[in-house]
């Protein structure tokens, strides 16, 4: 099947951004969109930052088909996110600062004004096999019903959106907040203003 050129361009743009910004290694991570009763997803083992049109695979949403044999190993997670949430796009990234903080915190509280306004906090979940797709397919979607992203402890971020660019923002935004939190913690000084405790954002 030949993927529409406009879809390929978006996959290529998002994939390049994830790798160039250090959110994924050359072959890690995966991205997808929902298209009716189908999923369009990165091919297994394809280089996310150097995608070719043939590296984008179409699969059935609700059952296994021939496309599933070539799709990302985390197709099952993407499938369950689409079936259980309002997501129309999914990005999975090994965002380093979210991953670092997930190993010492049960949720990542945003302390910068942008992060508080957009996310407030970033949930962290624990899996027996952090990089295993089957358990993630069970535990990630319920969290994404209520949050735009979730961090699997020691593994990385799953984010949803209405478009791939939207899902990408729900990776890069939390990652920026996690980076700010990490470096602020290194300073070892009290915050001059704790935005995370403010409740009324209507004047922002």
Map the helices and strands:
Layout: H1 5-20, E1 30-35, E2 38-42, E3 56-60, H2 75-84, E4 89-93, H3 96-102, E5 107-109, H4 113-118, E6 121-125, H5 133-144, E7 149-152, E8 156-161, H6 164-187
Parallel strand pairs: 6-7
Antiparallel strand pairs: 1-2, 1-4, 2-3, 4-8, 5-6, 7-8
Helix pairs in contact: 2-5, 3-6
Describe this structure in words.
It is a single chain. This protein has 204 residues and is an alpha+beta fold. The chain has a single domain, classed as Class II aldolase/adducin N-terminal domain (L-fuculose-1-phosphate Aldolase), CATH 3.40.225. It is 37% helix and 19% strand. The chain contains six helices and eight strands. α2 (75-84) runs parallel beside α5 (133-144) and α3 (96-102) packs across α6. The longest helix has 24 residues, at 164-187.
CATH top level class name:
Alpha Beta
Would you tell me the overall average pLDDT? 92
Indicate the low-confidence ranges by residue numbers.
none
Strand order of the largest sheet: 3-2-1-4-8-7-6-5
**CATH homologous superfamily title:** Class II aldolase/adducin N-terminal domain
Query: What's the number of domains?
Result: 1
């Amino acid at each position: 099947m030949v993927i529409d050129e406009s879809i390929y361009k978006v996959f290529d743009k998002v994939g390049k951004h994830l790798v160039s910004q250090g959110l994924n290694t050359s072959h890690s991570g995966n991205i997808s969109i929902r298209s009716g009763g189908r999923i369009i997803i990165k091919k297994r083992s394809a280089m996310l930052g150097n995608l070719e049109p043939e590296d984008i695979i179409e699969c059935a949403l609700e059952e296994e088909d021939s496309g599933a044999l070539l799709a990302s190993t985390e197709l099952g997670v993407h499938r369950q996110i689409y079936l259980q949430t309002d997501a129309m796009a999914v990005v999975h990234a090994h965002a380093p600062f979210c991953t670092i903080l997930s190993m010492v915190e049960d949720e990542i509280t945003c302390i910068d004004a942008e992060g508080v306004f957009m996310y407030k906090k970033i949930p962290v979940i624990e899996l027996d096999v952090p990089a295993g797709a089957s358990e993630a397919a069970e535990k990630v979607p319920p969290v994404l019903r209520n949050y735009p992203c979730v961090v699997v402890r020691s593994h990385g971020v799953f984010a949803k959106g209405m478009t791939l660019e939207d899902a990408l923002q729900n990776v890069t935004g939390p990652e920026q907040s996690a980076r700010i939190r990490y470096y602020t913690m290194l300073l070892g000084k009290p915050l001059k203003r704790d935005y995370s405790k403010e409740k009324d954002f209507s004047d922002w």
